[in-house]
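[Q] Does anyone have a clean structure-token version of this?
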Amino acid sequence: QATPKAAFGFPALLTSKPSAKQTGSTEGACLRVTFPAEENQATPKAAFGFPALLTSKPSAKQTGSTEGACLRVTFPAEENQATPKAAFGFPALLTSKPSDAEGVKVKLYFVRHGETDWNLESKIQGRNDIPLNTTGISQAEQLAMTLKMSEYDIKAIYSSRQKRALVTAEIVGKALGIPPVVKDGLQEMSLGSWEGHTWPQVREIFADEYQIWYKNRRYQVPPGGESYQQLLDRLLPALSQIMEETEGNALIVTHSAIIMTLMSYIYDTPFEDMAKNYKTGNTGIVELEKEELYKKIYHN
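[A] Here you go.
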């Protein structure tokens, strides 16, 4: 879970859920917040999609202490308000905003990279930095034309640092006039010693390890690799950062295992069935509402 940005000039970590009274009511709600000692943080924005007005003065404990402090915050019923105002000379508390003030749903579009030669050969790529082939470049160019359609309205592009994803993102970014941002956490799953082999080869060469992994693949780590749970543990903070940083729809160019794992997590389906349920072709687009992902990450 990403850390919300600053309140009162300090980075703030929300440690208790807001009450139902915050969804449009003018009645105050108590938030428990900790304030680490660092001071150099950005100006805070809205809280939970509503402009926030602090109505009780912060205590001395908030000035650099890590001890929690109870803040009384009101959330006006009107949604079409400007940036939240200050109270007692302090700016309002920031946390993620799942949709804009008019209620339009903000979208995250997850895209698998274009084709590589290893895709054609059915080899496990993992962390190997395999480039796009000529078909993959053409696929990325076609994807760029598709995403130029107004219905997508992309405002930001994020990418894995691996070449097959980053070049796909760069081709799209050039067409849309949006430079892609490399984000740690979006890289493909590491499958260690199995990379460079096909799945039938893995079942034959690494028979014992494969059977152990196959029966508990969410948590079992393949030799020299990572589990799907470890993938989630790095992916979800990256997505939290993207949601904090982005206003409007975002494109996230990444990899097959990333998309399948995320979808299995969001919809609570067995990780053993992810390929059957969520397998995505090269440059396939998977759409998620930002609010849906936000609720799953922050309120699961």
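[Q] Thanks! Anything notable?
[A] The chain has a mean pLDDT of 77.
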